[in-house]
Structures are given as structure tokens and as C-alpha cells.
Amino acid sequence: MSEVDPDAGRVIRHRFGDVALDTDVVRLAGLPEESEVVTAGFPCQDLSMAGKKQGLEGEKSQVVEALFRLLEGRRVPWVVLENVYFMLHLARGTAMAYVLSRLEGLGYRWASRVVDSRAFGLPQRRRRVYIVAGLDGDPRDVLLADDTEDRSWPALDLKRPIGFYWTEGRSGHGLTSDAIPPLKTGSGIGIPSPPAVLLPNGRVVTPPIEAVERFQGFPSRWTSALRKVRHGRNRWRLVGNAVSVPVAAWIGMRLARPGSYDARNDRAKVDGAPWPSAAWYMGGARMVASVSECPLAKRRGRLSAFATEGWPDLSNRALAGFVRRADEGNLRYPNGFLETLKANL
Fold first, then answer.
1. Which of 23, 66, 93, 287 is exposed most, by the fewest CB atoms within 10 A?
2. Is the per-residue pLDDT at 89 higher than 90?
3. Is pLDDT at 186 greater than 90 in this prediction?
4. Pairing of strands 78-84, 37-40
């Protein structure tokens, strides 16, 4: 593994003590000879809706060049990448096109797909772009072979928990029914930014870190090695940076035992058209895939299945700030939502 973050390194050593752990990937001289799969994710701050939207020109995203340098030195059979959904849309998909073009230039065939973590039983609305590229194997049989019909997620109403970003309110709110919005990494100086949840009983709470770990598919207290490091606040950042565990496990399973993808209903991607939520390339034209964001027929993740009674209340100051920004903005909210929040003040 290669991990530049010292706190992430502490967790890796705690949970995987026998793994070889390098630091900055930019300094790696090359990939090990026995490499079969390279899994990578480059910083998404410059690509996300919450970031500076600088794309691959942003300073934080330049580490993707280290990946291609390593692959130029040793082309491994499989490459698996993950990044934020906004990568498809930023500058009309320039970042997405760049990454895929570089893979094609190295002789890789690829498949891409947006997957929502809620479809894997996690109570978190987390849509992420996954890319699987292969030299000889068919990446479609890994990433696209499994599919179910798109889920109809529950409507926003006060009968179910509603997750939202208490730090926003004017231009966004992240309202999600019976789940939380995508976990954030927190501020640049490590201050946690957990979501808020309006419960059906009218309380406004925030989940503890142990619950948030489970929302990503980790066992509770997975990052406990950091409890005494800077008061454990960087645990939030690491969990927000992570890939949802059951999604990673599904891709790993399919790498070991590929399925069989049926491409008969697919069509060629039109040059200049927006990037689709699923696509593939096998050496000819880039194609649009006809699959959903829900690969497996699992029960959707439900926040209402968690014991939320003991969760701490959102502070009055934080709640008042959100309500003020919501009143000043022009976003729409479910009937009774803001009134219930104000009743907590």
C-alpha cells in the first residue's frame, strides 16, 4: 500500500499489520513485479461539488499522474479507480475523458459505472464513479454484469429520518430520506463535519463516529487507533475519504469470478455528449451501457434501522445557523421540515 496521510497509516498498521506500507505515491520508483491489480483513488477536492472545481489542473489532483507513470513502467492486468460523481460533469467531463484516454493509450479496455452505496445496504446516499480497466480480461464482466432495476428511494417526509448538511442551507442542503447525504471529510484543518438528522420524534441529532463507520460498511470502532490522536477528530476525515466497503468487496469478487455482460442494448457514445452513468470501451467506439446504479438486489440501507436515541443533539448554534441560511435562500424543503427545526431552538 501507499499512503501519504500519517493518520491513515496508523489505522492501516493497526488493522493490517503485515502489509508493506510506503508513503507518498509520487515517490514510488515502480510497482512490484507480482502486481495483478492496482487500486487507486486520487484526491477529489478539486472535482467535487464542494471543492474548487479545478478538475485535474487542481494541485490536489496532480497525484493521478503518479498512477500513470507507474503504469507506464509496469502495465498490470487490472486497474480499479474510484472518484466523485461530479467527475462526470465538471468542465463537460474533461477530467473523466482525460483519465480514460490515458488508460486507452496504455492499451487498456475499460468500463465505468456510477454506483450508489445505498444499493448495498448502507444508509448513505453516496454516488461514486468506478472505473475498471483490463489488458486482457473483459472489464464489462467485472463492473457491468450485475444489475437490478433502479430503486425508488423513499420520498422526503417527516415520518422517516431526514439527513442533511447543517453546514449548508443557502445553495445546498443534501436532504436525504431515511439516509444521510454523502459523508464529508471535514475542514482542511481536520474539524469534523458530520451530517445532521431530523428524527421522526422531532429531535435533531448527529451520528457518532462509530455509527458513521458503519455507514461506510466498516465495523464500529474501525478507526479506534486514532482515539487519542488529536482527540480522534481525524477519524471523520478518514471515514469520509474511504470507499464503501461492500462496493469494494463486490468489485473484488467480480475480479476473481467475472460475470457475463450482455451489450446488445448498448449504443455508441456521441462525441461531445455528457458522460453517461455507465459506459465501456473495448478497442473500438466508446459505448453507453444500459445498466442502473444498483448492481445487486439487496435491501436498501435505512437510517431508521439504527438505534438513534442515544445520538447527541445538534448544537443550538449550528441549528440556528442552518435555519437562518435556509430562510435567506430559495431552496425547497418538505412541508413542516423548517418549522420542526425551529421548534428545537
1. 23
2. no
3. no
4. parallel
Query: The pTM is what?
Result: 0.92
Closest Cα partner for 234 from 295, 278, 193, 294?
Answer: 193
- 129: nearest Cα among 71, 164, 89: 89
Contact of 212 with 197, CB cutoff 8 Å: no
CA atoms within 13 Å, Cβ hemisphere of 127: 15
Q: Is residue 280 helix, strand or coil?
A: strand
Residue 237: CB atoms within 10 A of its CB come to 24
CA distance 103 to 180: 34
- What is the set of active-site residues? 44
Task: State how far the Cα of 289 lies from the Cα of 295, in Å rounded to an integer.
Answer: 13
Please state the φ and ψ torsions of residue 312, each to the nearest 5 degrees.
Answer: -70, 150
Q: Which residues pair with 205 in a beta bridge?
A: 197, 313
CB-CB neighbours of 121 under 10 Å: 16
Element spanning 286, H or E: strand 286-288
